[in-house]
């Protein structure tokens, strides 16, 4: 009887290791490089009443403000599990717009070439299908990596300032979605 109860508890604990957002399971912890990151928050991105993706923000430790997330050293991940098919152009236009909306003009100029690198990597994908997971990772030793369904694409893009600009797409003063920002910050 104890063995059955113990097995049931293990199964319940395993289920607790994932959060569900709009029917999509989001892992509570992930491995990135040699370390482990925890889910800071997760939420649904919608546009014109369409579900676009479920996003998750992973950090070394939980933070509840944009300033604290941006200042936190170490690896980070923003992941997007698509809830619909998207063309690469839709993804790159959204990234470009998000950076413009949340980055000062002078800083945009400094990021221009690196943003072009990111857009080239994303355009090489052609399209992404419902269920695909696109992650933007900050790995301090190498830079920003684009990972699609667990596979790195393109080369790493240098500069933590670039990754902070990417994070501000979701966490900045003019985020893609106010409710998604709140969810990513654990609200």
Describe the structure.
The protein is an alpha+beta fold. It has one domain: Chalcone isomerase. Helices cover 40% and strands 35% of the residues. The chain contains six helices and eleven strands. It has helices at residues 2-15, 66-71, 88-102, 105-125, 160-171, 178-184; strands at residues 18-21, 24-27, 29-32, 35-47, 50-59, 76-82, 86-87, 127-128, 133-139, 143-148, 151-157. The strands form three sheets. Strands 3-4-5-6-9-10-11 form a seven-stranded antiparallel beta sheet. A two-stranded antiparallel sheet has the order 1-2. It has a two-stranded antiparallel ribbon with strand order 7-8. A hairpin with a 3-residue loop joins strand 9 and strand 10. Helix 3 runs antiparallel to helix 4 (105-125) and helix 3 (88-102) crosses helix 5 (160-171). The longest helix has 21 residues, at 105-125. The chain is globular. Residues 3-16 have low confidence and may be disordered.
Show the helix and strand layout.
Blueprint: H1 2-15, E1 18-21, E2 24-27, E3 29-32, E4 35-47, E5 50-59, H2 66-71, E6 76-82, E7 86-87, H3 88-102, H4 105-125, E8 127-128, E9 133-139, E10 143-148, E11 151-157, H5 160-171, H6 178-184
Antiparallel strand pairs: 1-2, 3-4, 4-5, 5-6, 6-9, 7-8, 9-10, 10-11
Helix pairs in contact: 3-4, 3-5
How far is the first residue's CA from the last residue's CA? 40 Å
Q: What's the number of extended β-strand segments?
A: 11
Strand order of the largest sheet: 3-4-5-6-9-10-11
Give the overall silhouette: globular
How many domains in all?
1
Poorly predicted regions:
3-16
Helix share bin: 40-55%
For this structure, the CATH topology is Chalcone isomerase
Task: Report on the biggest sheet.
Answer: 7 strands, antiparallel
Q: How are helices and strands ordered from N to C?
A: HEEEEEHEEHHEEEEHH
Question: How much of the sequence is in beta strands?
Answer: 35-45%
